[in-house]
Write a structure and sequence with these properties.
It is built from 29 helices and 21 strands. The protein has 675 residues and is α/β, with parallel strands linked by helices. The strands form six sheets. The chain has a six-stranded mixed sheet, with helices on both faces. Helix 13 links the parallel strand 12 and strand 13.
């Protein structure tokens, strides 16, 4: 551990903080998670001090005072006069420019942002921000120190919101726009985004938790710092509630009312009872039309297949980005009988279906569609007309903002995904969302929403537009990684070697993980991406995916176990050619070589990988672990040693309870349930 000095200008505040920390350690001791010796040792390293002069011996000073530029500049001027010439100065600012804070320093190159998130012990991501004059070695050192603390560092340029607060703008602001248009209420939007996308909290639940006196000023700050960029436009809804003191859970009332800390959520409307359901005609332009037909068959619907609907049919449309009214007019459908369904996400992957009416949709048509799509027990929400429903709008906005973060080179795609999943708790990184549901689909949503609303808020980022046009993964950017490598050439080789250990840790974790690990590759897997795919037990790749062992193309030797994996899988001469030449290899070529297991259509790699995972999930986990270990150890074993290892695994698994369940299920012809 490190010796830590605590300084606060408030009398006894540092001592109080030390007491609070020791109380946390005591709770960990009581639970048996740390020993008495550990707590005692850590306590000896934590020392309150009374003056800035007591910080003279520090190698690193982290500031976390009030968010005022003048106050921070004054403090760092005092610190610069006290600490040694090699000490690093760091600011925990969440909203001020690191460059501005360091502008008055004699040596601004040693100042960087080191932004932690509350609660720090649980939020395992920290943003490392380089000001315009920050030395690259400072950021490398801070990143290394963050890893020593058990945190994951992500590096960002000095821009408003850095990574997490910038990337998080779409979730709440677009949901507020949807409410502002009268499309749906707060609870319905929260339900849709939890059940369709997989967010842990809906946007209004989240704003109630963080409180509007925190979240609304952040919205306004980033909006104004980006000179009124429409993508970040705040809402009058939160401004009004903030002015009225309706802040959220901490005051007992926000978007929900709270009784004893529990949100009072209005009940969902009941499924309508209808005497009969009319036949259903599906638009020829519907998204996922084949899947929609299959869903209707599974629900027992009567389906019309003519060129146009009959006068009694429900006209079902499934647009991307357009509202139901526009589709009804363009396709010359009777608006009174037209209703829409959101099919951006595969129905099998969601826990809720979302239907949308237009202003002319008849009540009996709405109720019949609701009853039909609720037949199998899945939840159904019916909303008013909206370009992009709810999920399309919010997801497309999140993906678009994230794409523009990459376009501006604020951070690498990898750090963006890491920061958002750890810092915001999204079910997927925003670029992974775009890749999973299709960059071309996200583009279509944005283009059509811009047509419906005439708002530049929805203009696609060049990053998204270009990658969507050529079928490239949104998360791939060799240029960004190369820029970081170029900058890191000035760092201490020991620090560089330690930073590479992060990739090695991933490779070893994949190799030794007791369950099968599947790689799903869309777009390009180059360098470390190729190495990660090789480390996996199974690889599924889209037909348009490309694999490049690109290290030699930029005068670097391979890393991430690439040379080991390829030499195990291929003849020595072929492995050498792939490593030395750095050629682009297609998914089909690697399938022919036995490295890729399955080749899918573009956009289907993840779905195929998930289906494969479900297939493996039906097998006994202890047997899968044995097979993985045997296959991994085989190249190092002699035949006799391997036969002995197979025998030991066989006997061990024979005496496992799962073997009894599996054999009995086979004999009785039923599906086994494994431990």
């Amino acid at each position: 551990g490190s010796r830590v000095l605590l300084l606060d200008m408030q009398p006894d505040a540092a001592a109080s903080a030390r007491g609070s920390i020791q109380a946390q350690w005591q709770r960990l001791q009581d639970k048996g998670r740390i020993s008495d010796e550990q707590a005692q040792g850590w306590g000896n390293l934590l020392e309150p001090v009374p003056t800035i002069a007591d910080l003279a011996s520090c190698d690193l000073v982290i500031e976390a005072i009030v968010e005022r530029l003048d106050a921070k500049q004054a403090l760092f001027a005092q610190l610069e006069a006290v600490v040694g010439p090699h000490a690093v100065l760091a600011t925990n600012t969440s909203s001020l420019a690191v460059t501005a804070i360091g502008a008055t320093l004699r040596r601004p190159e040693r100042l960087a942002g080191f932004h932690f998130f509350n609660p720090v012990p649980l939020m395992k991501v920290v943003e490392v921000i380089a000001g315009l004059k920050t030395a690259p070695t400072v950021c490398e050192s801070l990143s290394h120190y963050a890893r020593q603390m058990g945190h994951t560092p992500v590096q960002a340029q000095d821009t408003p919101g850095f990574i997490v607060n910038h990337a998080g703008r779409g979730f709440g602001t677009e949901a507020l726009r949807i409410v502002g248009e009268g499309v749906a209420d707060f609870a319905t939007i929260d339900r849709i985004l939890r059940d369709q996308v997989g967010f842990k909290l809906g946007p209004f639940e989240l704003m109630d938790l963080t409180a509007l006196d925190v979240s609304h000023p952040v919205m306004e700050s980033i909006y104004h710092q980006y000179y009124e960029e429409p993508r970040f436009r705040p809402s009058v809804i939160t401004a009004q509630r903030l002015a009225g003191g309706i802040l959220g859970k901490k005051v007992g009332e926000g978007f929900y009312r709270y009784e004893n800390g529990v949100a009072q959520v209005p009940a969902e409307p009941a499924v309508p009872e209808v005497a009969s359901i009319p036949p259903v005609w599906v638009s020829t332009r519907a998204a996922r039309r084949a899947e929609l037909y299959q869903l209707l068959k599974d629900l027992g619907a009567t389906i019309e297949t003519g060129a146009s609907p009959s006068q009694t049919a429900i006209s079902l449309v499934a647009p991307l980005g357009f509202d139901i009214t526009t589709v009804a007019v363009v396709e010359r459908l009777d608006p009174a009988r037209t209703i829409g369904i959101d099919m951006l996400i595969d129905d099998a992957a969601t826990r809720r279906r979302v239907l949308a009416t237009n202003p002319a949709t008849r009540v009996d048509i709405r109720d019949a569609a609701h009853a039909l799509f609720a037949r199998d027990g899945k939840a159904v929400s019916v909303i008013r007309d909206s370009g992009g429903f709810v999920t399309q709008r919010v997801v497309a906005t999140i993906v678009n903002i994230a794409s523009d973060i990459c376009q501006q080179q604020i951070c690498s795609p990898r750090d963006l995904e890491t920061a958002v999943t750890l810092g915001l708790g999204y079910p997927l990184g925003p670029l992974a969302m775009g890749d999973r549901w299709g960059p071309t689909n996200i583009l279509e949503v944005l283009f059509n929403m811009q047509t419906v609303y005439g708002d530049t808020r929805y203009r696609p980022s060049p990053w998204l537009r270009r990658r969507g046009a050529i079928g490239l993964s949104l998360a791939f950017c060799s240029g960004g990684n190369l820029l970081r490598l170029q900058a890191s050439r000035q760092a201490d080789p020991q620090v560089q070697a330690q930073s590479i250990e992060g990739l090695h840790s991933w490779i070893e974790t994949i190799r030794t993980f007791p369950k099968p690990v599947i790689a799903a590759v869309e777009g390009a897997a180059a360098g470390a991406g190729f190495s990660l795919a090789l480390a996996c037990d199974l690889v599924v790749a889209a037909r348009n995916a490309v694999f490049v062992m690109a290290y030699s193309n930029v005068a670097l030797s391979p890393d991430g176990g690439a040379s080991w994996s390829l030499s195990q899988a291929l003849p020595r001469q072929l492995a050498t050619e792939i490593l030395m030449c750095g050629d682009r290899l297609t998914a089909q070529r690697l399938h022919d070589l036995g490295i890729v297991n399955r080749v899918t259509e573009p956009g289907s790699a993840l779905a195929t990988a998930l289906a494969l995972a479900e297939q493996l999930n039906a097998r006994a986990p202890n047997v899968l672990a044995s097979i993985k270990e045997l296959v991994s150890d085989a190249p190092r074993n002699t035949l006799s040693a391997h036969l002995a290892s197979e025998r030991d695994h066989f006997v061990k698994n024979l005496h496992h309870a799962n073997a009894g369940a599996g054999i009995a299920a086979f004999l009785d012809k039923h599906t086994p349930q494994y431990e």
